[in-house]
Design a protein that fits this description.
Elements (H helix, E strand, L loop, with lengths): L1 H19 L7 E2 L2 E2 L13 E2 L3 H11 L5 E5 L4 E5 L5 E2 L7 E5 L8 H4 L1 E6 L8 E7 L2 H10 L5 E10 L2 E7 L5 E11 L16 E3 L2 E6 L5 H10 L8 E2 L5 H11 L4 E8 L11 E4 L24 E6 L4 E5 L7 E7 L13 E2 L5 E5 L30 E2 L8 E18 L8 E8 L4 E5 L9 E21 L6 E2 L1 E7 L1
Parallel strand pairs: 16-20
Antiparallel strand pairs: 1-7, 2-6, 3-5, 4-5, 4-7, 8-12, 9-11, 10-11, 10-12, 13-14, 14-20, 15-20, 16-17, 16-18, 18-19, 21-29, 22-24, 23-28, 24-27, 24-29, 25-26, 25-27
Bound molecules: calcium ion (2 copies).
The site of one calcium ion has 8 residues, from strand 19.
Amino acid sequence: MLLLLFALFQGSQGGGFDRCGTDDRCDLIGANLDGNNIVLPKGKEYIETSSKDNCACQCKTWGPECKAWTWIIHSKRCYLKTRAARPQFGAAFANYISGQKECQCVTDANNCIESGLRYDTVPGGADILDKILITSAIGCSCACHRLRNCLVWTFNKNVVKYGKSECTLMARATTRVQEAGFDSAVVNCDYVSRPSVCVSGWTEFKGACYFLQQEKKDWDSANAACQLQQPKKFNAQLTSILNDEEYKFLQKMAGSSEFWMGANRQPRTWYLPREKWFWEWTDGSNWKYTKWAHGEPNGHAGRQFCGAANWSNTKLWDDNSCDEAKKISICKYRIAPAVPAKSCADPKLLESSRITCTASSEYSGDWGCQKAFDGEAPCNQNWPYSGTSWATKGEGVGAWIKAEFVEVITIKKLRIKQRFSMVEQSSGIEIAFDGGVKKDFKLGVKGCYSWNIINLSEPVATRTMKIRISSVYAKVNNGFKEIEIYGCI
Ligand SMILES: [Ca+2]
Ligand SMILES: [Ca+2]
């Protein structure tokens, strides 16, 4: 008996750890996976666990029923889930960490990491989105990709706690400092989390999108306004200017006006000797190309820390007081180069948790766009309140639903189920993928008893998919019961 206990003890200490081997590269930080809780013994829906690793472990060892987990930091509650629903982000979930049993880490770290570099930050400053303990630099990179508005990460191997090191996630590039034991990267060196086209209102030029802000603003407010420009998640910054060609393009955009650019000097300490000046681009681009006017930057009165372009008669650059309100500022975000489609011999159903969505309209929260990607497609009316479909508010032709994925997916096949009611059936759709690729399809199957199956003649690599209804059999509140996406990651 004692021997058996001993064996069990050994199993849980040694083998248990190996079997769990949680992978924090995949964590969704500040995210909740709503619902789909496994009901535990005594009707409880959660287990109290000391760490998110322990929670992930519970899921791994639970058996096939557990597909995902959510752990709440302050209450230490661990919820095991039968399905990874669409993640919820936002202030209410700042204390939540979620993950899936199967780990897939989105990262561009191999292209981006700079060793021996840290980004310096003000402790507790608004630039810091999160500080976490994590196992590897790649993990830190993944966490940054998973966290909305994360632009820069720094991984500090000099700190080791519980076998993990410190990972700081930041909203903008701050002072770069050479220091051993650090790895850092700027997310926008990658293409994975970037869109492939400029959204409307932005002008495309050589792999980036630009927006002219025509409201009087000081440098910091102008940069903050860039970050708030739609779509927010691209985290636009005041523009960097990296060569003559780009500068000429921006000068054309600004006309004859002087404008704020992303150049700024760190640290903003008055009367700092010139050899300690450190100029940088707020979007993290390398500081190489400059176009200073004669005698600039002069740090006038010891306190000019921000860069303006198209200055005065010279039309070159000047360092200026960051507090000065300028009429014009220009924002920039990078876009992705086209990604080649994979061969994808074994297409798999894309999980809901990898999809976020928007739509031209939603009948109500119970018929929101996420209902088309929630994995539920029972063929009944679900009247009155528990919709399993996306429904528009009175739309037919022209209605659209757009899915965005957390990484580039090569799509091979779709299955689409229409809504229950025969007076809400669509007959044709146009599907648009990244890079303006569009395809038309007929929907021959009405109602929700069977699927419309759409095989793509060529697989498409994309981060977004927008389905627009192009013709209808009949219209009330058209929409879709479910859209299944099959492909490879
Ligand atoms: Ca100056
Ligand atoms: Ca559904």
